[in-house]
Design a protein that fits this description.
Elements (H helix, E strand, L loop, with lengths): L8 E4 L3 E5 L10 E5 L8 H12 L7 E9 L10 H4 L6 E10 L13 E5 L3 H17 L7 H16 L3 E8 L2 E11 L2 E9 L8 H13 L7 E7 L3 H8 L3 E12 L2
Parallel strand pairs: 3-4, 9-10
Antiparallel strand pairs: 1-2, 2-3, 4-11, 5-10, 5-11, 6-7, 7-8, 8-9
Length: 260
């Protein structure tokens, strides 16, 4: 529940983790292979063979994806041109920062009048969260998603909440729903999911205070000693996360090939 929707299947060994989501072949984890070792130009052919071996039987998969992790310091301030490094113009590169906060590093939430945090529980709450995700999509057309996909994905998150894997939080300003995110826990780690501000309420500090308040809620659990969020490298969201006490610890690097 922490790292995947309930319908995603996972198999793993000491070298790879393979994710498959047959119900949604257009999903990022439709056919997704994580290498526990850093992938290099020389090792890439072998990793792609492993993808075929472990995931090639799936039908109607639209994307072939491999991912690995790089320690902090292996990337410059500007993300490297991985497609040139691997000499494959058909591959699309993704570089995301892995940021971690602890009870020691988090910043106290600043006071903002008329702002309240609510735990999402009702069907109406989760319907409003889906509506906000779709509004965000409509204002961000470059996002690789559809409204149908967002309904499915948030349905998976809602199911994860119902199964006890985490909680979903709603930020309100003067009673108006302005921002939301999920927080899922696993093995002493709390993972942020889908931090979203409604397009009409952006650039007013709501994402920052949402993260601060949800961090405080997460660390009320004595079994949680760190929080994690994944963000596009060198992006505005990453700067928000750093401002509330997150620090980058590593990078998730992925190469993606469109199959259809």
């Amino acid at each position: 529940m922490f790292v995947r929707p309930p319908t995603t299947q996972v198999s793993q060994d000491d070298k790879y983790i393979a994710y498959r989501t047959p119900a949604r072949s257009d999903f990022w984890w439709g056919a997704y292979l994580v290498s526990r070792d850093v992938v290099t130009k020389d090792s890439l052919p072998g990793v792609l063979l492993e993808w075929e071996k472990r995931l090639g039987d799936l039908k109607d998969i639209k994307k072939k994806i491999i991912q690995w992790e790089l320690p902090l310091g292996d990337l410059p301030v500007a993300a490297p041109d991985l497609t040139s490094e691997f000499n494959d113009p058909a591959a699309e590169a993704h570089v995301n920062s892995v940021l971690v906060a602890t009870p020691v590093t988090i910043q106290s939430a600043f006071a903002m009048p008329d702002v309240t945090l609510h735990e999402a529980k009702s069907a109406a709450d989760f319907a409003a969260i889906v509506d906000m995700a779709i509004a965000d999509l409509e204002c961000t057309p470059e996002l690789p998603a559809t409204a149908d996909f967002l309904r499915w994905k948030h349905g998976q998150f809602h199911e994860g909440v119902k199964q006890g894997g985490g909680k979903w939080w709603m930020l309100k300003f003067k009673g108006e729903f302005v921002a939301n995110c999920g927080l899922f826990t696993h093995k002493r780690i709390a993972r942020f999911r889908e931090v979203t501000t409604h397009p009409q309420w952006r650039c007013r500090g709501f994402a920052r205070i949402l993260c601060q308040l949800v961090l405080a809620e997460g660390f009320k659990d004595p079994t949680v000693d760190q929080a994690v969020v994944i963000s596009e490298h060198n992006s505005s969201p990453e700067r928000i996360y750093k401002s509330v006490g997150f620090s980058p610890t590593s990078f998730q690097v992925a190469l993606q090939w469109d199959l259809k």
